[in-house]
Every structure is written in C-alpha cells, then in structure tokens.
C-alpha cells in the first residue's frame, strides 16, 4: 500500500500526463507548458502537506481538549473567594484560602462575622467597579473574566503577579499539568477553585438577570453565601470549618500520589 505522500505524488504525475494529452489535442504548445507548470506546483504543495507533522504550526501540539489537563501558570495554587476574587500562592505554600481569610478577618480574631464577610465582598466589588458608577456593567464583567480571573474561562493566569488580593501571588516553578480530582469533571469555572459551586461568582450576584450587578445585589449575594457557609449557624466562619475546594483536594492527591485526601484540619485546614 502506498503511503499518503507517494499516493499524492502519483496523483500529480497522472494528472500531468492527462493535461499534456488534452492540450496536445487542442494543438496549443504554450498552453501545455503553462498547465504542466501549474500541475507540478500543485503536486508539490500536496506532497508537502502530506509530509507535515500533525498539530499546530511548526509541529507543535494543538490546544488541549476541554477534558484534558488544566495548567495553572507557574504551577501556582489558586483560590477564588465567594465574591469571585482570585488568590494565588506558590506550589509549596499554604493553600491561598488563608490569604483571603486573613484579609477578610478585619479584627484578626480568627473568625469571620457576617459583617466582615460582606465588607470583604464589597471591597472587591469596588475594585471591579472601575468607573465608580455603583454598578458592575458588561464591560467590567468582561475585564474581570479576561484580566482578573481568566482561569474561570479556561485561560492562563495573568503574566504579572504579586502576592495579595486580586489573585496576586508569587511565581511558583514548573508548569506540570494538573488533572481535576475524580468526579469533579462536572464543575466549571470558579466552582473548581471556590468554596461554593458557582462557575462565575460575579455574575451569580446578578439577582434580576439584567447583566448588571448593583452594590445592593452584591450585598444580598454576600449574605446568602455567608449563610451557606455558616453550617452550624453560630454567626461566624473559622478557617478550619470551611469546606475544601476541589482544586485543594486535587492538590493533596497529587502531592501524596494517592486517592483524594484530607487537607489540613477538619475543614479548609491550614495547609493546601
């Protein structure tokens, strides 16, 4: 059996002979030469296409499938707060839920009250409301999705990162791909990195579905989320009581080389 390249070359040769015969019947020598040149060029292009390596330009692999491994820039850990704010940390640092919790805990007593939780959400709301209109509009939502937390749409982390709010962490080494833990393939967007299964927390605050988020809507959404996380109804959240994110579970599984494991203490735990 001929290989594809050989088959294409034979096709070009036979086509050239056919052109010669047809042109000869027409008695036009100049036309014969022109057609021969065009046919030879076509055969060369087809043969080159057949021999080209698979994948993208330069033989590079194409983009991964949607179900394939996800990469986090520099191998960083990622946590997305209930309000949608991303926090990042190097691979061997504590899971960055601690960065969020420490910042939201205004009086540093180790517990988040509802007022502190809501205040933290409104602080992030203000950073997204760049025109200070009191509303996060479609343009500001797009900026959030593409520049602040592009991972929720499957994109890479921003290239320039610093530790702290807005997902600002340290570069963290290699880019080893990470797979989601087993059974987490139904999760999308921020749900993989957050405490609550919301793919897009900012838009999830849009209570009247008008594609705009007001400060009042952000406040109401924060109160609802606090109630969901305050499972013992004591009016406060502690770090060890928080659920682990699917990404956090998968990180421990990857480190241990075992099945899903527990991270830190009974809840979110001190370490990732």
Automatic annotation (TrEMBL):
PROSITE patterns membership: EF_HAND_1, EF_HAND_2
Please state every residue range assigned to the domain named EF-hand. 217-252
What Pfam families does the record tag this protein with? EF-hand_5
Tell me which SUPFAM superfamilies the record gives: EF-hand
Per its record, what are the GO molecular function terms?
Answer: calcium ion binding
Compositionally biased intervals (Gly residues):
166-175, 260-272
Identify the stretch annotated as signal peptide in this record.
none
The ranges of region (Disordered) come to 52-75, 154-181, 232-272
Gene3D superfamilies in the record, alphabetically? Answer: EF-hand
The protein's name in its UniProt record: EF-hand domain-containing protein
Q: What is the lineage of its organism?
A: Bacteria, Pseudomonadati, Pseudomonadota, Alphaproteobacteria, Caulobacterales
């Amino acid at each position: 059996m001929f290989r594809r390249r050989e088959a294409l070359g034979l096709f070009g040769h036979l086509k050239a002979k056919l052109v010669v015969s047809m042109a000869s019947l027409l008695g036009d020598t100049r036309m014969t030469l022109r057609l021969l040149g065009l046919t030879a060029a076509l055969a060369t292009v087809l043969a080159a296409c057949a021999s080209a390596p698979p994948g993208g330009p330069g033989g590079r692999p194409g983009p991964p499938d949607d179900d394939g491994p996800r990469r986090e820039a520099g191998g960083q850990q990622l946590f997305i707060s209930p309000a949608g704010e991303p926090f990042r940390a190097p691979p061997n640092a504590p899971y960055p839920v601690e960065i969020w919790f420490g910042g939201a805990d205004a009086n540093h007593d180790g517990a988040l009250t509802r007022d502190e939780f809501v205040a933290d959400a409104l602080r992030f709301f203000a950073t997204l409301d760049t025109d200070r209109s009191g509303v996060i509009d479609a343009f500001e939502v797009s900026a959030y999705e593409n520049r602040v937390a592009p991972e929720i749409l499957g994109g890479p982390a921003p290239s320039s990162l610093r530790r702290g709010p807005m997902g600002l962490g340290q570069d963290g080494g290699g880019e080893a791909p990470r797979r989601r833990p087993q059974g987490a393939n139904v999760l999308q967007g921020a749900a993989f990195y957050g405490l609550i299964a919301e793919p897009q927390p900012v838009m999830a605050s849009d209570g009247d579905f008008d594609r705009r988020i007001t400060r009042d809507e952000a406040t109401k959404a924060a109160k609802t989320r606090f109630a969901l996380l305050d499972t013992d109804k004591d009016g406060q959240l502690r770090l060890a009581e928080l659920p682990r994110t699917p990404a956090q579970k998968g990180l421990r599984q990857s480190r241990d080389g075992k099945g899903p494991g527990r991270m830190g203490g009974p809840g979110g735990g001190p370490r990732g």
